[in-house]
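User: Structure tokens for this complex, please. No commentary.
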Amino acid sequence: MMLELLTFGILAVIALASAVMVITRRNAVHSVIWLTVTLFAVGGIYLLQHAEFLFAVQIIIYVGGIMVLFLFVVMLVNIDVAVKQARFARQGLVAVVTAALLMAQLGYALYNHGRNLGLPIRPEIPEVSQNTQAVGMVLYQNYMLPVEIASILLLVAMVGAVIMAKRKFE
Amino acid sequence: MLESTGQFLLANPLLLALVKILIVFSVLAGIVAYLVYMERKVLAFMQARLGPMRVGPWGLLQPVADGLKLLLKEDIIPAGADGWVFLLSPAISVFAAFTVFAVVPFAGNFYVTDINIGLLFILAVSSLGIYGIILGGWSSNSHYPLLGALRSSAQLVSYEVAAGIALVGVLLISGSLSMVGIVESQQDMGVWNVFLQFPAFVIYLIAAVAETNRNPFDLPEAESELTAGFHTEYSGFRFALYFLAEYTNMVVVSCIAVTLFFGGWLRPFESVAALAFLKFAPIVASVGGAAFVLWLGLKSAVALERYFFVALAAGLVLVAILVGYPPVLNALQGIFWFSAKVLAFLYAFIWYRATFPRYRYDQLMNVGWRWLIPLALTNLIVTAVVVWWKGPHVWPLLAIDLAVMALVAYLLSLRAPATRAAPEKVTE
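Assistant:
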């Protein structure tokens, strides 16, 4: 229990610190690297919750795919212009006030009702001992419709991206 | 004393894991060093020349000389290179390459750990190697490395998809993501996965060669194209780290292919009683090795080298006698067969390098996206349907799989080519 708390503390500090580094770096590639560190830390928190499948998939897809694409875009786009601009937009004060309000609201909600954060209805998982099998069972039995909708969404995004890229070469 | 050490280690599982990690790491570092030597020798023999011969008998100390040279070279950091990222990138590559060995089972009872998402873990950690390449190329602050890095990472990302989909076929048959579970399922079924999933094996092999930036997919580091690509600006030990990472990646993908498709540490034809004499293969291998060393060594002109090789052959004969002792023979079966299969794969990698011309970049992308991914998806669908219908048996799985793959490959070949054909004839 103590070790778990300690590990969670370390991962949470890493996640928060690297998130702050993401928005304060001048160099865009450095920001991307710090975002990768944040995603690693979040994956570690998933692992702490015994969600191994989610941890592995987070690394494969988020860190190994999406952040690589981020890096590609950042490296190929001319970022000199961006560096010369002011780092924070002009609505800085409004943003800080809004963020503080949101944090206060969330903090209040968590403080009063944080005990009831479990799922209201536990999905019927058959007797499986492993996280991957459990995720698979639940996804393809209880949540089949959202899976299909999500896959159609991804298909639309893919086809749209191909069409938009092709049009440039016409 | 040995028993008390064993019991002490078993009582502290963390310490046991640490000892295993140390063993695996040191053995691997040695293997990778001599893999470089083996590559130079094999390439040389295939090209009718001799390879490294000067440093030590038959060039056996060449890796030592190379390592020392790289360690003692001047450490050049290009002006304008991005400080921390430049220093960190080779480390990321090496980290990603070596971490995978935490889940590879070298024998039935020798693996660092066995997690129940072993296969996913391997896919995840292998995809981290891309960062070492991209960040290394970018942080060099020079256009050749940047281009090489971007090309290489695009290639890696593309072939990762095909490799992943091919491996899901294996997952369907074995029903488990854990590496030890997959080997045990092959043992239970009595047949290696390569016979059940041959098309997936071929796709995985091609994707693995592309993943490790090896010939014929090594355009990103071809000297004639990009002056060594992403590691152009790295010298001395940092370059050695990239080199180490690349050859370790080769060993990693060979280990994965062996574990998933060729039964890991299982002896060939374990279920056939008539072939039980294969159990004596380690003895035969040692004696054969001794004979080979004698044959090569006695040709040498220098007397000292001849004595060295006779001593080496005598040592190998001693090993053969030691291994012949039945408990040792049974204990060594797993690791021997695993190493033999991995060595065969590594030899194949070197063979490809000696044989095939390099793919042009657009051809490389063409093969990855327009051929391997559709074929891998076809294999997945066919496997899923047949396993659901008839169960995972060689017949009809392999037959239907091959037939459908051939049909799909033929249909794919009827498409218009992706790259533009030769320019139209200029009308005079």
